[in-house]
Amino acid sequence: MSSREDIVPRPPRNFRRLSYTRRCGWVDWGHASPRGALQLKGQIDQEKSGFHLLDRLSVTLEGAPAYIVSYGQSMGGMGMRVSAEAHWIVRKGLSPAQRESAALGIFMAASHRFEGLQASLPYSMFTNSGYSAEDLLSNLIGFYSAFRSIPIERMRLVCGETSVAESLRIWDEHLPNGIGAIKNRTTRPVLFSVREGVSSPADTSFPLVLTTIRASASGTDWVAVRTRFIDGMLVNRGLPIDVSRSGIVMPVAQAARVPAYAR
């Protein structure tokens, strides 16, 4: 979770991890890194996970050719490691726009899974970072940085980053209990009054570039495996598997005997 100290640039790169922005609210620029989203993009563009045992499996999603994506978010600190990595099933042959929509759907589902894990016991006993005000929006910025090839330094300008002094002022006036005390389960920013850089309403409006991809719903072109991971015995045996719209994994021969409504 971000702290007030993260607002001040740190050597040797003078990196500002946390800042208040006029158009995107609080942004954790560590969370906004495109690294994770690029990993997801690579798998979806290539239609394979990069893991030999997974990629050799014959997989269908409700009978349609599909492939496996291995993706999730994780964090380590204070002697703990929180991970929400999982297997996701994606239809093959999607158009570029459909691939982007599926990727955003998976990305946001993984983000919610991770934030929900942080907000649950036992992790909530040690941290208040689950669904902290800046988390999901920062993740979204990282996603668009990867899928729209926008460097993070450009994203700082797009979001309207304020000065260190202004960010500190907003923190001190509005966050007496820290940023983790303000919860946000959406990708819309939590905004506060800004004293610098505002000459028109457009200076505080949400960036349109962060709205150009619409996430597809689970069960259409993608689905999360209900048990989080495909059973290792199925993977090792290399049997063809079919996955239902609700994420249930079955060998193809068995799935053929189960009515769709029962899956």
Radius of gyration (Å): 20 Å
- Estimated share of beta-strand residues: 15-25%
Question: How many strands appear in the DSSP assignment?
Answer: 10
Mind describing the biggest β-sheet?
6 strands, mixed
- For the record, the count of structural domains works out to 1
How far from one another are the termini? Answer: 39 Å
Shape, please? elongated
Low-confidence stretches: none
**Helices and strands: which structural class?**
alpha+beta
| Number of distinct helices | 8
Helix percentage range: 25-40%
- Average pLDDT across residues? 91
Explain what this protein looks like in three dimensions:
Helices cover 31% and strands 16% of the residues. The longest helix is centred in the middle third of the chain and has 23 residues, at 96-118. It is built from 8 helices and 10 strands. Strands 8-7-4-3-9-10 form a 6-stranded mixed β-sheet. Helix 1 (35-46) packs across helix 3 (96-118). With 263 residues, it is of the alpha+beta class. The chain has one domain (4-262). The chain starts with 17 loop residues before the first strand and ends in an 8-residue tail after the last helix. Strand 5 and strand 6 (80-83) form a beta hairpin.
